[in-house]
Amino acid sequence: MKKGLLKGILLLIILFSVANLSAVNLVEMFVNGGAFMYLISFLLVVMIILAVIKYWQLSVKEKLDTQRFYLKLKGYIKNNQTEEAIRVCAQFKRTTIGFIFWSGLLGYNDGLKSGKKGIELQRHLQNSFDEAGLQAIPHVEAGLFWFDIVAQVSTLLGLLGTIFGLVNAFDALGTAAEADKSRLLTEGISMAMGTTAYGLIVAIPTMLIKGALQSRADKIINDIDEYSVKTINQITYSMKD
Length: 241
Known about the structure:
The protein is an all-alpha fold. The protein has a domain at 66-140. It has helices spanning 2-21, 26-32, 35-61, 66-78, 82-90, 96-113, 118-136, 138-141, 145-175, 178-240. Helix 6 runs parallel beside helix 10 (178-240). The longest helix is centred in the C-terminal third of the chain and has 63 residues, at 178-240. It is rod-shaped. The protein starts with a helix and ends with a helix.
C-alpha cells in the first residue's frame, strides 16, 4: 500500500514537472542539448520497448488464477489421477507456474512407472520440481536489470551534458567576442540545465516502471514457491494414504 502511494506521488510530481516544462520551448531546449539529447532519447526508446515486452510477458503471458489452478490439481492428486493432473498442467505450459507443475508432475509420474516408492519417490518428486524451477524461474526476472542501467545512464548523460554546457558557458566568458558572450553563455546554461532535466525525465519513469514490473515478477515467484510446496505436500500425503 505504501509503495503504491509513493509511486503515485512520484508520478504526480513527474506530470506536474512536465506540465511546467511545456510552458518553455522544449524544442529549443532539445536542440541546445546537442548530442546528449539524442543519446538520452535513444535510451527512452529502449526503455519503452523493454517495458512493452516485459509487461506482455508478466501480465499477459503469465496471467493465471494460481489458486484456482492449484485447487483443480488438488482434486486430481487426492484421487491419484496423476495423468489427468498432467493434462491440466499441459494446457498452461506457456506460463512459468504451469510449466513447472507440468514438468514436476511428469517427473513424478515417471518415478511411479519406474517403481520408485517411499522416500526415494519423494526425493524424485522434489528434484523434478526443483529442476523445473531452476530452468523456468530465471526467465521471470530476465531483463529487468536493464531498467536500472537505462535510468542510471540517462541520469549520468544528463549530468555529463551539464558539465559540457557549463564548460561552454565559462569558455564563452573568457574567449568569445563581447557581442557573442551573452548568447553563448545563454546557450551553455540552456544545454546544462536542459540535459539534466531531460535525463531525469527519462530516469524517474524508468525506475517507477521497473518497480511495478519487479512487483509483478515477485508475485509470480512467490506463487510458484507457495503452491509448489502445497502440491508436493499434497502428493506426499496421498502417497502415505
